[in-house]
Write a structure and sequence with these properties.
The chain has 532 residues and is of the alpha/beta class. It has 17 helices and twelve strands. It has a seven-stranded mixed β-sheet with strand order 1-9-8-5-4-2-3, sandwiched between helices. The protein has a three-stranded antiparallel β-sheet with strand order 10-12-11. The chain has a two-stranded antiparallel ribbon with strand order 6-7. The radius of gyration is 25 Å and the shape is globular. 41% of the residues are buried.
Length: 532
């Protein structure tokens, strides 16, 4: 049976179940209860082998149950093969200390594997040849110890220092309201000014969108006229208007785009937005200048925590009929291959001839999301021409300290390499195809469940996304299925207009049987049915 073929409606949502067999929320809570802290208390004398193994068994049982039901987060649980093949490496203390392109003094490392993983994504993201300090068009990158949060912070750090010039206005950062929450944290940690902060402090009452300065760039509005029911993609027109305001005042510009946003799974139209931004950059002198300091005055970063792992394969399938599948929504260019022509001047502003400008300066991706490494990790990538000198060149580690963390997990490259080596490009296309088909299936079944039960579920899905959002069920089901939730204001400023949503991410480890079990639970949930 294909992922889009549904069982008979009456079998999945028996009408009598609403009255006869509501979900046993107490039973679910007991089964899914987290282990007690006391189960893992370590006394002064330590634990016997029996005590230690019983504690580990408790955690193993809990994680096994949760793994079987995890559908609400961007984390695949498809990990068995790597666990069997890579356990031998647990005997080594592996540390990819310092720059991945220099072995360094700590020799138990997997940097050669790390470079192979980077090369793989550099090809997919059109980043150019492997790192060569003499080639400004070569790529540089590294595997992250955290997820894309670290990659986003590194991009902000690199961009802040790249864009800052003595005596010039300070750089200003722009990101949409659907951007991951860690961006707000990162700008505070790094002392990067957002357009909202600079606008409120230096240009009060001058917001070109009208009214007060918004905290973030607005996302696209939906049928309501507000962004809560929109796609989750950035409003490129609003972004261009805001960027124009600050560029005209001499501020260098940092822009973040999302590829697979946190809650709606939306893909910003990076190409379309860049087509709006490039004339702004050109008008206000932010393109590269001739001379010793040829740096440009803008930095575009793509937070592809989820989407950068599968987006290249969506684009492959759309471009090549040999894959036998056409994705439902077009995904425009988003990576280092995105170049656009200027309107008038050349590199020095004197030639009068159009030239191509590469728009994207950096990309971050999480390895524990689409690919499925069993701990947070990821990839950061930029071009050599944008890389600044590391803050120190410590002799202690024998390699430049060019990464954010210094000490880095040497197991992550092994696991990500093992995953990538098992799959052809066709396999990768099939993975994202199955996820999109399951997303379509879940959205359709939720609408059928509304008809069967008479309940309001508010199902919604952004075209091309692999997530489906719907009404928040009981706390017991939220816990059982590890559902991420968000309160949405349907009427700005009116507390009565709050709606509680959850979402399901159709990761490679989610199959139709899990979705059918979730749907059966929702069909009997007292909160969904309005009887609690």
């Amino acid at each position: 049976m294909s992922p889009t073929t549904a069982p008979a409606l009456g079998l999945l949502f028996p009408a009598q179940a609403r009255a006869a067999a509501p979900v046993d929320t107490v039973g679910i809570a007991d089964i899914d209860a987290e282990p007690e802290r006391g189960d893992f208390a370590i006394p002064a004398e330590g634990l016997t082998d029996g005590q230690r193994l019983r504690a580990l068994d408790r955690m193993d049982g809990y994680l096994t149950r949760k793994r079987r039901h995890l559908v609400g987060y961007q984390a695949t649980q498809e990990l068995a093969g790597s666990a069997l093949d890579l356990a031998r490496f647990m005997l080594s203390n592996i540390n990819n200390l310092g720059d991945p392109f220099q072995s360094g003094g700590y020799k138990p490392n997997t940097k050669v594997v790390e470079r192979a993983v980077l090369d793989y994504y550099a090809r997919l993201w059109h980043a150019g040849p492997s790192y060569d300090p003499a080639d400004p068009e070569s790529y540089w990158g590294y595997m992250l110890s955290m997820g894309s949060t670290e990659g986003n912070m590194y991009a902000l750090w690199n961009a802040r220092d790249y864009l800052t010039r003595p005596g010039a206005p300070r750089p200003v950062a722009f990101y949409s309201e659907d951007t991951h929450y860690s961006f707000a944290k990162a700008v505070r940690v790094l002392g990067v000014d957002t357009f909202a902060a600079v606008g409120a402090a230096d240009y009060p009452g001058e917001c070109p969108l009208g009214g007060d300065w918004p905290a973030e760039v607005p996302s696209m509005p939906g049928p309501s006229g507000h962004s809560w029911d929109g796609t989750g993609a950035v409003d490129a027109e609003a972004l261009a208007v805001l960027v124009e305001f600050f560029a005209a005042k001499g501020h260098p510009i940092f822009v973040n785009f999302n590829l697979g946003s946190t809650f709606k799974g939306a893909h910003d139209d990076v190409r379309g937005a860049c087509e709006r931004l490039l004339p702004v950059f050109e008008r206000h002198g932010l393109l590269p200048r001739a001379g010793e300091d040829a740096r440009r005055g803008f930095w575009i970063h793509v937070d592809g925590a989820l989407g950068a792992g599968y987006a290249p394969f969506l684009r492959m399938a759309a471009a090549d009929p040999a894959f036998g599948w056409t994705p439902e929504a077009e995904l425009p260019e988003f990576d280092f291959g995105l170049t656009l022509p200027t309107r008038e001047s050349g590199e020095s502003g004197e030639s009068g001839e159009s030239r191509e400008v590469d728009m994207v300066a950096s990309i971050a991706m999480s390895g524990h999301k689409w690919a499925g490494v069993p701990w947070p990790c990821g990839v950061f990538m930029t071009k050599t021409k944008y890389q600044l000198e590391p803050p120190t060149q410590p002799e202690y580690i024998g390699a430049p300290d060019s990464t954010f963390a210094g000490s880095r997990n040497g197991f992550s490259p092994l696991v990500l390499w093992d995953h990538l080596s098992r799959l052809s490009y066709r396999d990768q296309v099939d993975r994202i195809r199955r996820s999109q088909e399951l997303a379509e299936y879940l959205e359709r079944r939720l609408r059928e469940l509304e008809q069967e039960t008479g309940a309001e579920l508010w199902p919604a899905r952004t075209p091309g996304a692999i997530t489906v959002r719907f009404r928040k069920p009981s706390p017991a089901l939220v816990a059982k299925w590890s559902l991420s939730s968000e309160n949405v204001s349907t009427t700005p400023g009116d507390p009565a207009g709050l709606r509680g949503y959850v979402h399901v991410f159709l990761m490679p480890s989610v199959d139709r049987s899990k979705l059918d079990a979730l749907l059966a639970d929702l069909a009997r949930d007292p909160v969904i049915l309005g009887i609690e």
